Each structure stands twice: as structure tokens, then as C-alpha cells.
Amino acid sequence: MIEKPGEKNAEGTIFIGAGVEFNGDVTVPGLASVDGKFTGTLKAKSLMVGQTGHVTGQISVETAEIRGAVGDHLVVQSKLTLRSSGSITGTISYSKIMVEEGGELAGTIEMIPQSKSANAAEPNVVMLQRSGE
Questions:
Q1: Domain assignment of residue 120, given as a range
Q2: Max alpha carbon distance in the chain (Å)?
Q3: What beta strand segments (E) does the chain contain?
Q4: Does 3 reside within a domain?
């Protein structure tokens, strides 16, 4: 589970509340929690997108939990958790993934290999599209 703001040490945390729109480039040493709208480049240790959150752009994190919407390009070095209320569109790269029933994925999905040895096999790439399109 991703640490939420106010738990333990909130140092290095950014919170974008519901109704707030933020555009730009941000590097966060800890948790980036988005219940509003973020557009741009985001690098963080952890990303938490709430049900009202919308994140678009070049996103690179260690772990992510998605309950809202993420679009464009998402790279999760460790574990990606997509909750039933969440949706991700675009290019998604991850090491481990967990998708609850109802979570929506659309785009190009790529698994990041556990070992980056020279002889590592190419990652599996899957193209997904919502039914009815």
C-alpha cells in the first residue's frame, strides 16, 4: 500500500487537491497524490491518483496506485495497482501489475524485465482497446 499524506513522514510529498489544476514539470522525492488535475512531466517515488484525479503527460514513478484517470506515458519501475474505478490510456510500462475488476487499460502495455542483462528477452507488448471502439 502506498503511504498517504500525513502518515509517518510527509517530507517530500505533494498533494494536488480536487478542483486544483497544475501544469508543469515536477520532481517529488516521496509521494505525489493527485485528486485534481496534473498535466506535464512528473517524476516521483510514489504516485497516488484519487477517484477525482486526472494525470496526463510523461509520468515516471517507482510505485503507483490509480483510482482516477492517467493518460499519455506512464512508467512504473516496481508495482502498478489499478483499482476498479481507475483507467489508464496510452503507453504503460511496469514491472509488476495488479488490476481490480472494473479497472480499464487501453493502449500499449509493456512489462519491464526484472533483470537488465544483455541476453534478456524482449518485453511482452500488448495492444489493448476498449470494447465497442
A1: 14-128
A2: 48
A3: 14-16, 21-34, 37-49, 54-66, 69-82, 87-99, 104-111, 125-128
A4: no
